[in-house]
Design brief:
The structure holds two protein chains of two kinds. Chain A is α/β, with parallel strands linked by helices. Chain A has three domains: about 10-190, Rossmann fold (3-Layer(aba) Sandwich), CATH 3.40.50; about 195-310, no CATH class; about 315-340 and about 360-440, Arc Repressor Mutant, subunit A, CATH 1.10.10. Chain A has 20 helices and eight strands. Chain A has helices at about 10-20, 25-35, 55-65, 80-95, 110-120, 125-130, 150-155, 155-160, 195-205, 215-225, 235-255, 260-280, 285-295, 315-330, 335-340, 350, 360-365, 370-380, 390-400, 425-435, and strands at about 45-50, 70-75, 130-135, 165-170, 185-190, 370, 405-410, 420. In chain A, helix 10 (about 215-225) crosses helix 11 and helix 14 (about 315-330) crosses helix 19 (about 390-400). The longest helix of chain A is centred in the middle third of the chain and has 21 residues, at about 235-255. Chain B has three domains: about 1-105 and about 130-135 and about 160-230, Rossmann fold, CATH 3.40.50.300; about 235-460 and about 495-535, no CATH class; about 545-610 and about 620-655, Arc Repressor Mutant, subunit A (Orthogonal Bundle). Chain B is an alpha/beta fold. The chains are: A alpha/beta, B alpha/beta. Chains A and B meet through helix 4, helix 11, helix 13, helix 14 and helix 19 of A and helix 1, helix 2, strand 1, helix 4 and helix 7 of B. Chain A: GO terms for molecular function: ATP binding; DNA replication origin binding. Chain A: One of its GO terms (biological process) is DNA replication initiation.
Chain lengths: ~450, ~675
């Protein structure tokens, strides 16, 4: 008993659709009924949303392709301006209407022009009596274009007076799209996340030809057991499944276990998958490196991940500049006297500070400081006398280009620039250790 | 200039391995692309963009050369399509794509010039999107694919359907959005467009995770490549440029120290180090008249022969030559001071001596470095450059550090000592000097004796230890045990030195004698001024400029730059002959954070009109002359331009001071 029913299309096609898109039957049937028959006018605009890799694009694309509906498919990320978007739609339309590819390029600057050109393009016979679908993937990009783009697409049917439906596909909800005034409310359709059962079903769907479906399903089961808590992205899971499958098969290939010996296979793979979660899933180790490791049967510990290389070598004064910047960022400026003057007297933390300063500065994040303060702290923490040479100043700006410091506010150098230090406490401690500077003693939070 | 080419060559050699690694990575990732993806695993895997993360170190100035060379290497061996992007050129994704297209189509033109017509036509209509790029790529590869079999003209080293390499020169400075967008877009075209990314990273690879969220970084297949550390790079440069007799030009201790300090304290830039070296070459030949002799020995001899009387006088006035003259007997002194020909002859010999000194100096230095570089706490420094500086500075054998180093060498174990001696032999063998025949022989003799010792002592020592241990085992009660232990200790203390220890002392003495003979500081050599550049302060002025200090000097003491006698005055007072801006500057030094403009003007006009004295009465005292007013305004605005003051909104008619202290 097929769940999909539609008078327009043959049952075989619908069955085929169902088989290649498991777990999305209800969404498909909704879409099909909204689309109606070929020549019928459909809803002017449809808004489809759902989390990453919940099959939105895939369902739409296969649906439109298998049913051979005339459609235009545009990914909005690629179109940084509205002009690019409009031209892309038009050029795809052009290739739709005349099957022979015409080379003439259409230029289109405004929406007004677009509507006119759109009318012209759809004059062709074969497009006249069918609904044309315009799919805009990653539609959240539309919000960054001119204010009239989104409302116009929502009521394109009305503006162009053609049988056209615009479908917006995105990951965020409609409420975040809605313009202030005068917009047409689209038909919204939600694609829910796949449940673990769904994932199991979909992933086991495409098993390698050499092995039986059951064997692969057991593998997927183990894989999901490890990864489901951290990752529900179907694409990523598929990638991980493909990467680690050869390791899973290893005992079978060597003849140490047969395909039904699940317990043994599980023992073999589980620790391996856990390691994969810490390395290759986070892209600490690249997939190709991971595969090479599997082939050589090496320990994954051999290849250091990206985060293992945290050490940054800096010139001597740059280190002190960075330390000074860190102190200036995380100490209240009134405490400088306490740290850098010889006869500062005693200072009690509680009586000294206003109420809002009592929270840890490390929780509040770095504060901006002027250049003068940075230099003053630098001069007092370096043992030797530092001449204010051009090199020192250029080191400050090179620290800014390295993103260890950031320039706050405007970039008028004459007007006393202000900086923030963006490195972490661990990083600065490592730096301070190399120059034998006890930074904890100078931090107000650790007093 | 030969030094320049040598330094370039060094850099290339150093980076060769890095380049090779990257090319291997490209080849591998590319072959994956070319496989038709029939395999199940390939089909299932999401196609990631191969990415090389290139960690280059913080010396940003050196990166340009590396990248330039890298793209050349890639263009020669891998693909004509290499694009390098800088963050400042790409504030938005549109600019990035435009730049990308521009560079790609350009390199296409470069490859096949007869096709220009086509390109110019297409350039007009190319829209900057990856679609257009895909079309272009298809077009290009199809064309070359059909052409190559017949013509074979396009460079054969390029691969089939060459990848497009995009280099992001300064990853840190790119905005997150641009990078993310670019990666997302290009990942959708990866099947038609074999893109490869190279990230140039200055700090640490962590930055990738900071810039890219997981959803984006999961589209990349990132592999890490580490560049040679800049300190190692400097070490090689110093070894090849300075510690060799190939180039007659040398740096004195102070100059070398200045250059190394700039490197270590400020920029880590080998490029700048080489530039500083070049500057000192120029400065030396410019300022030292006798630098004509700073060339290869035969050439120098010829030049000495053609010296004029004046040039001989130059030689006579050299401090080191004078010292030499004073050490001679009186007849010879007179001859040296009066006869030009005799001076030439002596110069000849002295130059030869200097050359021989250098020929001996470097091998012995390297030999000494072998001994000192592995000692605990490194009394003479870990790097050979530190040792070199110590030797140039003064007689190294008179320093405390040298003493303690020798003390430590005397305690080395046999295996280490033998290994070091073998290394030394190798070093001496590799130098062509004739003098070291004896030394090598001596060293080899030492080695042979160590070998013999091993054989002879092996049996003896074993016997001894066994017997003493047996004794220990026999006595079981505590008292006796203690007694025997004490006895053992006593005997050990008083025991005569073993053969090995004797030999060790001999070796150390030998090394010591080598050092005393050959590692005398260069400043003690006669005529060292000819080849050694020692004006460290000039170099410092040029390379480590202090703009603020210079500005302060100029404003505080205008005579320093203007050399006008009228301006020569004592430091404290303010002369009215100085330029207006100097007067204003000096007055503002006496003020606090906020400066009242009216008071300032008052003081200014007082100073300016001070000496006129008599006619100051004629002007109404409370009203300032208009001209003086105008001069004052100009001086103040000049000070503002220089960044000393800025207008303040806190109080009306006040300006804020921006600088503090003397400079």
């Amino acid at each position: 008993m097929p769940t999909l029913e539609h008078p327009e299309y043959p049952e075989a096609t619908l069955l085929h659709l169902e088989s290649i898109m498991p777990c999305r039957e209800s969404q498909m049937s909704t879409l099909l009924s909204v689309f109606g028959e070929r020549q019928q006018y459909s809803f002017p605009s449809i808004f489809i949303y759902g989390h990453t890799s919940s099959g939105k694009t895939y369902v739409l694309q296969t649906l439109l392709k298998t049913l051979e509906l005339p459609h235009v498919f545009v990914n909005c990320v690629e179109c940084s301006t509205s002009r690019l978007l409009l031209e892309k739609i038009l050029s795809q339309l052009q290739s739709l209407s005349s099957k022979t590819k015409s080379a003439s390029h259409i230029s289109c600057d405004t929406l007004n022009q677009f509507v006119c050109l759109f009318k012209q393009e759809t004059m062709a016979e074969e497009l006249q009596n069918e609904t044309i679908y315009i799919v805009l993937d990653k539609a959240e990009q539309l919000r960054e274009m001119e204010a009239n783009v989104l409302p116009a697409f929502l009521r394109l049917q009305e503006l162009a007076d053609r049988n056209v439906t615009v479908i917006l596909v995105t990951e965020i909800v409609w409420e975040l799209f809605r313009p202030n005034t005068g917009c047409f409310e689209p038909f919204t359709l939600y694609f829910p996340d796949y449940s673990i059962g769904h994932l199991q079903k979909i992933l086991s769907h495409d098993h390698p030809p050499e092995y039986s479906a059951d064997f692969y399903a057991a593998y997927i089961n183990i894989l999901l057991g490890v990864f489901y808590t951290v990752c529900r992205d179907l694409k990523e899971l598929r990638h991980l499944a493909a990467l680690n499958f050869s390791k899973y098969c290893e005992p079978v290939v060597k003849g140490e276990a047969n395909e039904r010996d699940t317990r043994r296979l599980w023992k073999n793979i589980e620790s391996h998958l856990k390691k994969a979660m810490q390395t290759v899933y986070l892209r600490e180790v690249s997939s190709s490196q991971w595969e090479r490791l599997q082939q050589d049967d090496g320990e994954p510990g051999q290849v250091k991940g990206l985060s293992a290389h945290t050490h940054v070598e800096l010139p001597y004064y740059s280190k002190f500049l960075l330390i000074a910047a860190y102190l200036a960022s995380y100490n209240p400026s009134r405490s400088d006297k306490r740290f850098f003057l010889k006869h500062h007297g005693k200072m009690k933390k509680t009586t000294f500070l206003k109420k809002h300063e009592k929270t840890s500065n490390h929780l509040l994040g770095p504060k901006p400081f002027p250049l003068d303060r940075l230099l003053a702290i630098l001069y007092s923490i370096v043992d030797k006398r530092v001449a204010p040479t051009g090199n020192i100043f250029s080191q400050i700006s090179s620290l800014v280009t390295l993103q260890l410091l950031t320039l706050v506010g405007h970039d008028d150098q004459l007007d006393g620039p202000r900086y923030k230090c963006t490195v972490s406490l661990d990083f600065i401690r490592a730096i301070a250790r190399t120059v034998n500077f006890d930074i904890i003693k100078y931090l107000y939070d650790f007093l | 200039m030969s030094t320049c080419s040598v330094s370039k060559q060094i850099q290339e050699e150093l980076n060769k391995q890095l380049y090779d690694n990257i090319i291997r990575f490209l080849r591998q990732s590319h072959s994956e692309f070319q496989e038709k993806k029939i395999e199940w695993a390939c089909r299932m895997k999401s196609s990631e963009i191969p990415t090389a993360a290139l960690v280059l170190g913080v010396n940003v100035t050196d990166h340009d050369l590396t990248f330039k060379r890298l793209s050349e290497v890639l263009q020669d061996n891998v693909t004509p399509y290499v694009v390098s992007l800088q963050a400042k050129e790409c504030p938005g994704i549109r600019h990035l794509l435009k730049k990308l297209m521009g560079q790609l189509t350009d390199c296409y033109v470069e490859d096949q010039s007869e096709e220009e017509e086509y390109v110019t036509v297409s350039k007009k209509r190319i829209r900057c999107s990856l679609d257009a790029l895909t079309d272009w790529y298809e077009c290009v590869t199809k064309k070359t694919g059909s052409e190559t079999p017949s013509k074979k003209r396009t460079s054969p080293s390029h691969w089939q359907s060459p990848p497009i390499v995009v280099i992001f020169k300064d990853m840190e400075s790119f905005t997150t959005k641009v990078l993310q967008d670019f990666i997302v877009i290009s990942s959708q075209h990866i099947h038609e467009l074999p893109l490869v990314l190279i990230f140039g990273i200055a700090t640490s690879p962590m930055i990738i995770h900071r810039l890219l969220p997981h959803s984006v970084s999961s589209l990349l297949c990132i592999e890490l490549f580490q560049c040679l550390s800049c300190k190692e790079h400097l070490g090689t440069v110093i070894d090849k440029l300075l510690l060799t007799t190939k180039f007659p030009f040398k740096l004195s201790e102070k100059v070398l120290q200045v250059l190394i300090n700039i490197f270590l304290y400020h920029d880590f830039s080998v490029q700048n180090f080489i530039k500083g070296f070049q500057l000192s070459v120029v400065e030396h030949f410019y300022s030292q008249p006798l630098s004509v002799l700073c060339c290869q020995l035969p050439e120098a001899k010829k030049r000495v022969n053609s010296f004029s009387h004046e040039q001989c006088e130059h030689i006579r006035s050299l401090p080191s030559f004078r010292r030499y003259v004073e050490s001679q007997v009186s007849e010879k002194q007179i001859a040296l001071l009066t006869e030009d020909n005799f001076v030439k002859e002596v110069t000849w010999i002295l130059l030869e001596d200097l050359h021989i000194y250098h020929e001996n100096y470097f091998p012995v230095l390297k030999c000494l470095h072998i001994f000192t570089s592995s000692l605990p706490k490194y009394p003479l420094g870990k790097q050979i450059r530190e040792l070199h500086c110590a030797c140039l500075e003064k007689r190294v054998w008179e320093t405390e550090e040298y003493e303690s180093a020798l003390q430590l060498v005397r305690m080395l174990c046999k295996a280490d000592l033998v290994a070091m001696l073998q290394k030394c032999v190798k070093i001496f063998m590799s130098f062509p000097g004739k003098e070291f025949g004896n030394t090598v022989e001596k060293l080899e003799e030492f080695l042979a004796r160590f070998q013999n010792l091993e054989v002879a002592e092996a049996s003896k020592v074993q016997d001894e230890s066994i017997s003493s241990q047996k004794e220990l085992q026999k006595k079981t009660d505590l008292y006796h045990l203690q007694k025997t232990l004490l006895q053992l200790k006593e005997s050990r203390r008083s025991k005569k030195l073993t053969k090995f220890e004797m030999l060790r002392f001999e070796v150390v003495d030998f090394i010591d004698s080598l050092v005393r003979n050959y590692l005398a500081p260069a400043e003690m050599q006669t005529l060292h001024e000819v080849v050694y550049f020692s004006a460290a302060s000039t170099l410092c002025e040029h390379l480590n400029a202090a703009p603020r200090t210079a500005l302060h000097t100029a404003l505080n003491n205008p005579y320093f730059y203007l050399k006008n006698q009228a301006l020569k005055s004592d430091a404290g007072c303010i002369s009215n002959k100085a330029p207006d801006i100097c007067i204003a500057y000096k007055l503002h030094l006496e003020c606090g954070r906020l400066i009242n403009l009216v008071d300032w003007l008052e003081a200014f006009s007082t100073v300016v009109t001070a000496v006129k004295g008599t006619d100051s009465d004629s002007v109404a005292s409370d009203e300032v002359d208009e001209i003086i007013h105008a001069r004052f305004i100009r001086a103040v605005s000049e000070l503002q331009l220089l960044g000393f003051i800025k207008p303040s909104k806190q109080k009306t008619d006040h300006v804020a001071r921006l600088t503090w202290g003397g400079c």
